[in-house]
Design brief:
alpha+beta, M1 Pyruvate Kinase, Domain 3, seven-stranded mixed beta barrel, three-stranded antiparallel beta sheet, 11 strands, globular
Length: 153
């Protein structure tokens, strides 16, 4: 069973996120150009969110603001949007996207920044669906439409 990489976002030093078609995942650092590479994080080098959760979150929050809906990936502040795979199953496991290898390090809980950007209703709706964090174990290029699959040892 494999998933699909639908969207890639890289955050600059100010925290603004920019969409890109491809990026290098850097071993022990994160995504090239992402502000997290400036820190020495071992667990939160890359953040992933499941695409199928977005419609559930919007429904729970009863979100009607079309401007938010059209740019929702930007607002959630995650690096990778994955479809067709339950990303919670990646925690504590090695997986590949494109040429890069990752390790699922834990939950990516929604933070106060989400509440500031989207409001408390959206923050509450995201509980349990904020995504996961991962570290980069092996450098490699990832690009839109790459498959995600569990690494078999």
């Amino acid at each position: 069973m494999s998933g699909n990489l639908e969207w890639i976002g890289v955050r600059d030093k100010s925290g603004d996120i920019k969409s890109t078609e491809s990026v290098m995942a850097l071993e022990g650092r994160g995504l090239q150009g992402d502000k997290i590479t400036l820190k020495k994080s071992k667990k939160r080098q890359v953040t992933l969110m499941q695409k199928e959760h977005i419609s559930v979150i919007l429904s729970l929050a009863q979100e009607q603001d079309q401007s938010k809906i059209n740019r929702i990936e930007y607002y959630f502040k995650r690096n990778l949007l994955i479809s067709k795979y339950n990303i919670d199953n990646l925690k504590g496991k090695y997986f590949r996207i494109g040429k890069a290898k990752f390790f699922g390090t834990g939950d990516c809980k929604p933070c106060k920044k989400i509440e500031i950007l989207l409001g408390k209703t959206m923050l509450d709706a995201m509980q349990g669906m904020g995504g996961i964090t991962a570290s980069v174990v092996e450098s490699g290029e990832i690009k839109i439409n790459d498959n995600l699959y569990l690494e078999v040892n």
